[in-house]
Amino acid sequence: MSTTTVSKPKAPSGGALVTLTRRQKAAVVLRLLLEDGLAPDLTGLSAHQQATLAQEMGQLKPITRDELQSVVGEFLGELEELGLSFPKGLGDALEKLSGHISDEVAQNLRQEAGLNGQTSIWDLLSEMEPEAIVPLIDGESAEICAVILSKIKVGKAADVLGLLPGARARRITFAISQTSGISPVLVDQIGESLRVRIENTPVSAFTKDPVARLGDILNSTAAATRDDLLSSLDETDEGFANQVRKAIFTFAHITERVSARDIPAITREVDGDVLVRALAAGSETYPDVVSFILENMSKRMADQLRDSMSEMGAVPERDGEIAMTDVVMAIRKLESDGEITLIAQEE
C-alpha cells in the first residue's frame, strides 16, 4: 500500500472542511497514520470511544486530496495551539501521581470524588500480593474465580492458585476452560464488585500480612537464630508458627522449591564470588543443595566452581550465612520479576 507524506498545508480557498464531523475527521487522521505505518495507542480511550472511532472509519467514503489536506491542516493547526496538556480530571491526575503520593491519600481522594472506574481493577489486582487476593476470592464460586484469575497477570494468577487448597485450585483450573462464552458485561460486573470490596477495606500500614512479613525477616536471619525463634513461637502460637514456616524460603529449601531448569538463571543472577562462598559454606551444612545446584549447570562451569571452592577453603560461618542469603534473595528477585516460578509447598 502506498504511503502519503503530508506536510502542513494551507486550507483550500473554500475554508475549513465542513462536510465531515469531528469524529469523521478523527477517523481520517487515524486512517492516515495507519497508512504511514504508525500505531497510535488508543487504549486510553473508553470502550465507547474506541468503538465509535472504528465505526466512523468503517463508514467513511473516499475523500479527495484537497479534503484530506484540509483535515490534516486543521489537525496540525490545533496541535500547534496546544501548549501543555493537563490530566483530565482528578482520576487522571491521581494516576499520573501514582508513586508520588501515599496510597491512603490517593484512596481517600478517589472515594470522596466517587472515582470508581479510573484505574482498571485487573491492573490493581495484578499489583497486589497473592496473599491479599486470596481473601477477596474466598467464598466465590469456581467460575467467578476462574474469570478473576484469567484477567490478571499470569504469574500472579499462578501464585494465587499455589496458595489455595489443592481441590479448590483444581476446580478453578477446570472452570477456566469454561470461560470462553462469558460476556464482557459479566466480566465488568465481577470487576466492579471486587473494586467495591477493595475500596471498602481500610488502608493498612503494611502491604503484606504478618505471616509474610515475619517470613521475610526470618529468611534473612541466621539459621540458629531462626530455629530458636520458631521454637519459641511454637510455645505461644503453634498455628502461627506453622504458617510462618511455610512462608520461609531459605538456602535449605532450594532442592524442594526450585526447578532444576531454573538453576542457570539463578547462577547468572548471583555474583561469582558470592556464589562460590555460598556453595563452599553450604557443602558442609547443605551438601544436597550444593550437589543439586552443581548438577544442573554445564559441566565446565560446575568444574570451575568446584576448583574455586577448593581454593577458597573453609568459610567463616557468618560470611557463609550472608552468601547463602544473597543466593536466596536473588531467587526471590527472579521470582518477583516473573523470570522463574517456585514450586508450591504441599499442604
Describe the structure.
This protein is mainly alpha-helical and about 350 residues long. The chain has 4 domains: about 20-80, no CATH class; about 90-115, no CATH class; about 120-200, Annexin V, domain 1; about 250-335, Flagellar motor switch protein FliG, alpha-alpha superhelical domain (Annexin V, domain 1, Orthogonal Bundle). The protein is built from 20 helices and no strands. It has helices spanning about 20-35, 45-60, 65-80, 90-95, 105-115, 120-125, 130-135, 140-150, 155-165, 165-175, 185-200, 210-220, 225-235, 240-245, 255, 265-270, 270-285, 285-295, 300-310, 315-335. The longest helix has 20 residues, at about 315-335. About 15% of the residues are buried.
Structural class estimated from helices and strands: mainly alpha
Mean pLDDT: 79
What would you call the shape?
A: elongated
Query: How much of the sequence is in beta strands?
Result: under 5%
How much helix, percentage-wise, in residues? 55-70%
Short description, anyone?
The chain is an all-alpha fold. It is 65% helix and 0% strand.
Helices and strands in order, then pairings?
Elements lengths: L21 H14 L11 H13 L5 H17 L7 H8 L6 H11 L7 H7 L2 H8 L4 H10 L2 H10 L2 H11 L7 H16 L10 H10 L3 H14 L1 H10 L6 H4 L5 H7 L2 H14 L1 H9 L3 H14 L4 H20 L11
